[in-house]
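User: Hi! I have a protein structure encoded as tokens and I'd like to know what sequence might fold into it. I'm fairly new to this, so please keep things simple.
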């Protein structure tokens, strides 16, 4: 049973294949957690069964024979398990949990407390019932301002980009998140209405988009491919439909995609 559980923990049956740089350490931590929990589960049940058998054996009245009583045979009764064994198991359990807590905290700090590198690519993620939008800065490497009263998806301005701000003229808005493999990305998340949960299982990435706040999360995609993007917060009746796609491509393909969208953006008439 332990061997089967270990094989399952080491396989990709319980989670999709990892496509990010930090996902390797996270998967390893999760794998060790599952193995440790399985070992503790088995040991606890073995200990429980042995205790039941031992109490049952000691509860049976022995045949002392004539002229003998229980008091005269107290020195022959089996003694409790050595105390050092109990304390050793307790210490080992405490050390295991301490190691798991420290490892998890260091992994969390590396992705949440440490900021991205200055060379990280900037992408804005905007959640709105029931759609994800992704905005890329143009050649000026700056996001233009946006106003909620200007947001109109039917007119091609779902995020309300301000036409009076020259920095928004070259911003690219897409319904698909396209990223180059091997380059760190800094995502800035915000929401236009309610709390949404930005979740990419294949990238081991999850962060909330909260109205009125701009939250950041950074990661490095490493494996080209297509990954589903979900909403992990119940945001309304259409929550199950709030899905998007992350497409990780080579740097050359990404540059071509960005150039084509920049050209299409420049041909749009000014509003």
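Assistant: Happy to help. Inverse folding works backwards from shape to sequence: for each of the 271 positions I chose a residue that suits the local structure. Here it is:
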């Amino acid at each position: 049973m332990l061997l089967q559980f270990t094989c399952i923990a080491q396989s990709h049956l319980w989670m999709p294949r990892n496509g990010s740089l930090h996902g390797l350490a996270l998967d390893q931590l999760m794998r060790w957690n599952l193995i440790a929990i399985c070992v503790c589960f088995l040991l606890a049940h073995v200990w429980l069964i042995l205790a039941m058998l031992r109490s049952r054996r000691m509860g049976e009245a022995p045949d002392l024979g004539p002229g003998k009583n229980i008091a005269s045979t107290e020195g022959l009764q089996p003694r409790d398990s050595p105390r050092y064994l109990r304390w050793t198991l307790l210490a080992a359990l405490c050390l295991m949990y301490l190691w798991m807590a420290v490892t998890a905290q260091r992994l969390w700090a590396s992705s949440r407390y440490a900021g991205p590198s200055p060379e990280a690519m900037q992408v804005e993620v905007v959640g709105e019932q029931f759609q994800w939008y992704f905005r890329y800065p143009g050649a000026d490497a700056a996001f233009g301002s946006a106003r909620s009263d200007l947001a109109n998806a039917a007119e091609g301005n779902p995020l309300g980009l301000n036409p009076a701000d020259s920095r928004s003229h070259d911003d690219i808005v897409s319904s698909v998140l396209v990223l180059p493999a091997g380059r760190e990305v800094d995502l800035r998340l915000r929401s236009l209405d309610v709390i949404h949960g930005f979740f990419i299982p294949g990238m081991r990435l999850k962060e909330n988009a909260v109205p009125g706040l701009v939250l950041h999360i950074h990661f490095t995609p490493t494996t080209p491919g297509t990954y589903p993007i979900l909403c992990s917060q119940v945001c309304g009746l259409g929550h199950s439909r709030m899905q998007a796609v992350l497409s990780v491509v080579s740097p050359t393909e990404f540059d071509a995609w960005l150039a084509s969208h920049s050209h299409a953006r420049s041909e749009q008439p000014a509003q």
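A useful reference point when you look it over: Residues 2-57+81-112 form one domain. Feel free to ask if any position seems puzzling.
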